[in-house]
Write a structure and sequence with these properties.
153 residues, alpha+beta, 3 helices, five-stranded antiparallel β-sheet, four-stranded mixed β-sheet, 26% helix
Length: 153
């Protein structure tokens, strides 16, 4: 009997990036989850970023996201890097732009890997690097009438 690490399902898929997008329409958890489905994946990690009702001690009423035209290409570059570092079977990342209300989905990312630990680590790396490197900016509107721009997600 072959060792489990010799099975092809233990390795990264040849083309694991299934969905990368920046959209001005509501995001779908189902779409992202379905995009990362893979029979060889024993673990799927999903992260959902939502608009919260506060930031820095102030009440947030709404916010808007805008992005540089290169944002989607930068998301793909980061996804490729994550897929090269982990045994990713499938990966998806979608970020919203435009005006969002409290509770709206702002970003959804998911990664499936042969094992849960790898999936958690890869998903964490994906969202952290997206927030740090992708040129997406947040314009927060506070209840007291003030506004604030926050760079890179």
């Amino acid at each position: 009997m072959a060792a489990i690490d010799e099975h092809p399902g233990e390795r990264a898929a040849q083309d694991p990036i299934k969905l990368i997008a920046v959209r001005d329409t509501p995001l779908s958890l189902d779409e992202v989850f379905k995009a990362v489905g893979d029979d060889a994946a024993g673990g799927t990690a999903l992260f959902v970023g939502t608009v919260r009702n506060h930031d820095g001690g102030a009440d947030v009423d709404a916010l808007g996201y805008s992005c540089h035209p290169s944002a989607e290409a930068e998301m793909r570059r980061i996804a490729e890097k994550v897929a090269a570092e982990y045994p990713v079977r499938a990966l998806a990342a979608v970020h919203r732009v435009g005006e969002l209300a409290v509770g709206d989905l702002a970003v959804v990312v998911a990664v499936s890997c042969p094992h849960r630990g790898e999936a958690f680590e890869a998903c964490r790396k994906l969202i952290d690097d997206l927030k740090h490197d992708v040129p997406i900016w947040k314009h927060q509107k506070f209840s007291d009438g003030t506004e604030e721009w926050v760079g890179a997600c």
